[in-house]
Amino acid sequence: MLHFLKKTFQKFPFHLLLLPAFFICSKYVQYQGLLEINAVWKGALIIFAVLAGFFLINYLLLKDFNKSAIASSCLGFIFLFFGDLREFLQESRGHFLSLYKIFLPILAILFLALFITLKKTSHLYKTNLFLNLLLVIFIITEIAKMVQLNRSNHSGFAGKILTVPVPNSLKKKLPDIYYIVPDCYPSSSYQAEMLNTSNDYFDSALKEKGFRVLPESRSNYNRTAFSMSATFSMLYPSWVTDQNLPVAADYNRAINNVKFSQLFDFFQKNGYNTVNLSIFDLGENPALRKEKFLSATSSEMIFRFTFWNYFSRDILFSWVIDKKKYKAKQQQLHFKPLKKYSQQVVDSLIKGTIKNSSHPQFIYAHLSFPHFPYFYDSSGRAYNDNLLYNDSIITDRKKFTGYIKYSNNQLLQIVSSILTKTNGNAVILMQSDHGLSDLDVSRKNDAFRNYTAFYFPDKDYSMVYDSMSNVNTFRIVLNKYFGQHLQVLADSSIYVGIH
After folding, report:
1. CA-CA distance, 133 to 15, in Å (whole number)?
2. Burial group, residue 56, by CB count within 10 angstroms (0-12, 13-18, 19+)
3. Dihedral (C-alpha) 19, 25, 30, 35: value to the nearest 10 degrees?
4. Count of CB atoms situated within 10 Å of the CB of 196
5. How many CA atoms within 13 Å lie on the side-chain side of 457?
6. Helix 37-62 and helix 15-30: axis angle, to 10°?
7. Strand 427-431 relative to strand 273-277, pairing
8. What is the DSSP code string of 162-231?
9. What is the pLDDT of residues 454-488, one digit of tens each?
10. Comparing C-alpha atoms, which of 181, 148, 152 is closest to residue 259?
């Protein structure tokens, strides 16, 4: 059997087919579940078509099947992993080799030398065997990584911290719980300092309705995925530190940490229905609008480091494209759907499209406001696209101030609707995932100055404290309403950088 396999691997250039399979597998692992399956299949077909084109050209020149396949595999490797090779050189001591004026001639000379060698060589059995075996090993390695990642994603990262059964005396009066997250909503003190505006009327309106506003609350992270991971798992994600720049895998792990959080399983086992008006999957409840926390599409992620995309970004892009117009168009494509998404969430909360249930409900509503782009002014008038998508998409203080006021009006309507619908008997947790530090990048701590206001029907806020952070939100709620004995964690914040 082994002899047969060896002869087969020597005779046939399977590597020409194995190369695109390895490339797709490696990208799937690299972006851990963030790639849409249709884009993966489409990407695979494109790569096969490119390699077929390489093969036809090489066959016209070499007049030999095996020689053409080897030349095409080597050329395909350069084409597919061009950016990876160049970045490896940039990060090594030989970074000067990554300069285009050096790197491109070196690649051309190496391929020309290979081409000449192939023309002169008559037997290529060992080369076929080597390339076939190498790519089989690479593919097996990537598949093993996939299996391991899949296991870790479904095993749950938070561990079992909810082990105490809910007392029967509490089961009879479990409240509806609304968790409302206005994305990137900054604290009132931040608004006074950085935007020179008062948020007193919003704070006062909530207090009049019975809310407890936490003036010194802090988010644990400056990025939504990691903040919500800590909030719902009620633990700090161990793989996130202030020393590393997160990659796609880190974001995907945070997304799965939310999806498989023990919290939602706990709610379900205690008779709760989950209403998911958010950007995350919650157990078996799909997101209203799935967010990957990466601005690139699946296709862009797959082909990002290929020769054509890499060369186009570095060279052709600067020659041909109007960068400002291109950037504005990309902003529009990425952010414009958020406008419709938030309106869906608001309508579900205000207009009562959430179905009534005889069971208690957990409602998670993640709003896109007042996160940029700042779609509306303070009176609710929409801005034209040309006023939104530009270099000041984040830093326009006037628009941000107006959008917060617009957000306040929406939030007060939501709160009033919930209180009316539930006769004031629901728990309402209004808490932003993080603040904003982009107005002054030297003030990183501004990214943690979020907004938190809680409504408990009995108005007993003795468990709550002014400087509480998001990681303790559900620890306190579960202790108060579900008879749990969870320790309140030390409040800390970690600034997660970006590439």
Report:
1. 8
2. exposed
3. 120
4. 9
5. 17
6. 150
7. unpaired
8. --SPPPHHHHTTPPPEEEEEETTPBPHHHHHHHS----HHHHHHHHHTT-EE-TT-B-SBSSHHHHHHHH
9. 999 999 999 999 999 999 999 999 999 999 999 99
10. 152
